Every structure is written in C-alpha cells, then in structure tokens.
Amino acid sequence: MSEAPCLRVPKILGEKAISLVRRLGLFNKNLKVHKAGDYLFIPLVAEPQPSHVEEFTRNLLEFEVTVHSFPERIDRRLKLVDRLGDELPPHLLASLPHAMDFVGDIAIVEVPPELESYKELIGTAVMTVQKNVKTVLGKAGAVEGAYRLRAFEVLAGMDETETVHREFGCVYHVDLAKAYFSPRLSHEHDRIASQIEEDETVVDMFAGVGPFSILAAKRCTNAKVFAIDANPDAVQLLKRNIYANNVEETVTPILGDVRQVVKEGLVGVADRVIMNLPEAALDYVDVACEALKPSGGIMHYYEFASAPNPLDAAKVRLIEGIDKTDCNVDEILLARRVRATAPYAWQVVVDAKIT
Prior knowledge:
By secondary structure, the chain is of the alpha/beta class. It is built from ten helices and 17 strands. Helix content is 27%, strand content 30%. β14 (272-275), α9 and β15 (297-306) form a beta-alpha-beta unit. α5 (186-195) crosses α6 (211-219). The longest helix is centred in the last third of the chain and has 14 residues, at 310-323. The N and C termini lie far apart (54 Å).
C-alpha cells in the first residue's frame, strides 16, 4: 500500500473525474483507483495546484482533495513486443506500434512500412494481447475526401468495420468505413459538453455520428442542439445514436451542406458553434458567425497546425478569418493542443468569444 494525495468523488462522477484528472496530468498510473462505499478515491501524482482545484470546481458537482492509501498497480498485461519477441527479427522489434486506437471492440493500428510483410502476424498478436478485441484493422491510407474517410484492411479477426463504442455514459453506433470517428477526441467531447449551459442553442456544424451533440444533450436536457453533416451514412448513424441515447427531444439531426443549412434556417440562433473540421474549418468561419445570435456567442474552432508556434498560428488565422466577417473576436478563451497528428504537427482547438 502507498499513501498519496487523491481526489474523492461520488461513484456517479467517477468516469468524468478520472478523465479530468488525466487531462490535467495529475493521474497516478502506478496506483489503483480505490472504491469505498459510494465513493471513488482517484490517486494523484502531486497535490493539486489552485488552478487544478478551479477545474475541479468548474467540472465536478462534488469532490474532496485528501490523502488515501492505495494498492500499487502491477501491470500484468502482455505487450506486443513480449508476444512477438521470438517471431520478429530483433532489429524490427523497435518498429512495433506503441499505440493503437480502440473503437468498441475494434483495434486500429498503423503498421510501418518495414513491418508490412508481418502485418497479419501483428494483427493476430494484438488479439492475443487485447482480449476484448474482435477485429484488428490496419490503416491503409490517410483520412481524405469530403466525408473524411480512411481506407482500412482487416489484419485479424472478423471482417467488420461496424461496432458499438461507449464514451462518458453514451452509446455510439459507428461504422469506420462509412463515417469519421476518433476516440482520441473523447476528452474534447467531454470538455465542450461540460461548458454548455441549460437553455443554450448549439450548432454542431460537422456532427458526424454525434459525439459532441449527444454528450451535450445528455448533460443539458434543456439545451437545443442542431447536429449537421453532409455524409448520409453519418447522419443515419447519428439518428440511430440519438434514439439509443434518448436525446431525440434535444438533438435535431440535419443532412446537408452546413453553408446551405444555416442560410435556410439557422441564421442567428446559436449561443455556441462547434467547428470540428480541422482541415477546412477556416473556410466556414463566416457560416459560424452567421449561425451565432446577434448578441454573439462561443466558437469552438479546430484546425491542424504545426511547429514552431501552433497555438499562436491558429489564433492568428481565426482572428484574421473573423475580421473578414461582420463579427469580432471579443476574447480568446482557450487554445490547446488536442492530439498529435504527425511529428511537430497537431490538431488544435481555439475557444473564442465572438461579438
């Protein structure tokens, strides 16, 4: 047992609290989360700073920072390098994928060119190591096209791209071959949903299968969310997910080009717009401004940016884009790196208050 600072929360807030602690870089991976009665004790690497406590207060209805004794975590998971140590040439072991994405019971791996002839062996090894995986998909191309789709090849398991993914208490029917979905955005889904207030109107401009829209609706049942996408397959899955999560009274799915959809019925309605189309969001800044209420609102703008100053570059591009409209950037509320997309390149988000 090891004594460590911790965050004590009701079990019902456990998933959200653990996600928040991870996002703040405070989660102690060497200790096990401990359950006691109706509470969870989440181990921290250090005493929270005042800024961390402010985040806890903003995002959690009930919490206590305290000290607790935790059992140490023993990592008994078999790793790919352990499974393939005797089957690959030693000089190739360092090239094995160190990370993979999990969507439902599907694992997605990126096999480097030097391991191409071993890809089926790697797929089989992933299924051995990850017992809950039923399909291993290898990335067979980049995300491309108007619908942001990627080609995959089955490396092991069932020949299937459709699955059910669970995230923050929501259920999502996903088909990776037909509609874009990234589990690496789960913290963003939670972060945005945590900001939305009751009675807000939200326009999710590139909604996909609904991870931003549906979680927002689950958190704020009196909000109104318009979820728009141009991909018919994505909207079919979106509709299915709306009913699966019982948010049909809150989320309105709309199939169509967002520019036309806003012009025909959503001008001046939004308190908040979500622009998760990082490769082209800048081209739609005028549409986002058109959707916001005349009094203004909040814009969540995503783009791809690279070194040396990705956040500054994203803020400058957004401000320049807004300057070409009738709106103004009143305040940059936040700019952060969401995930790495390549060496020295990231998907970033800028939250801005627009007037």
